[in-house]
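ARCHIVE RECORD
Type: protein–small molecule complex
Small molecule: AR6
Source of inputs: curated submission
Record status: active
Notes field left blank by submitter.
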Amino acid sequence: MQIRLLQGDITRQAVNAIVNAANTSLLGGGGVDGAIHRAGGPAILAACREIRSRQGGCPVGEAVFTTGGDLPCQYVIHTVGPRWKDGKSGEDELLASCYRNALLLAEKIGAKQVAFPNISTGIYGFPKERAAAIAIRTVNAHAGHLPETVIFVCFDADNYTIYQHLLS
Ligand code: AR6
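STRUCTURE (tokenized, with ligand):
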């Protein structure tokens, strides 16, 4: 598995699948979720509503997938990160589950390249360094399966610097 790092906007990534840091409602929100729904158009929300009617949203730590709509990617894998509380409420395990379940879903749909944002490190307040270590560890543990390429797309300079350091 190849791991790549870049700083930028995940909605511009022409890969098989990008991952969304959604919430349990799957109805959109701020941050990267808002950006994905804005750039991807109504087809993504329509697909999310269909999933909601089937299974009633997406629990924290799990993942579902939809079309990429108008985005240059084929699929969006929506996962729901944990809100940071005190670090003793299962946040680490739930964040690892997000990456693991998104990767398993990517494998299932045959996605060769997958781009991840820094799940939970924005509105949900997860400490960035701690989240990056979990993300890298969980992606490494999935090596040997699809996807062939994982791209960490950092939006903010802090995350980019942290990943640069941890991946070097
Ligand atoms: N491309 C890549 N990364 C981005 C982009 C973008 N266009 N925009 C923001 N980020 P956040 P969370 C980064 O807040 O913490 C939503 O309202 C951002 O810099 O998007 O998991 C959902 O609906 C940060 O590093 O997600 C939920 O309610 C990372 O994406 C809640 O926010 C995650 O920040 C989820 O909070």
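CURATOR ANNOTATION: The CA atoms of residues 24 and 58 lie 5 Å apart.
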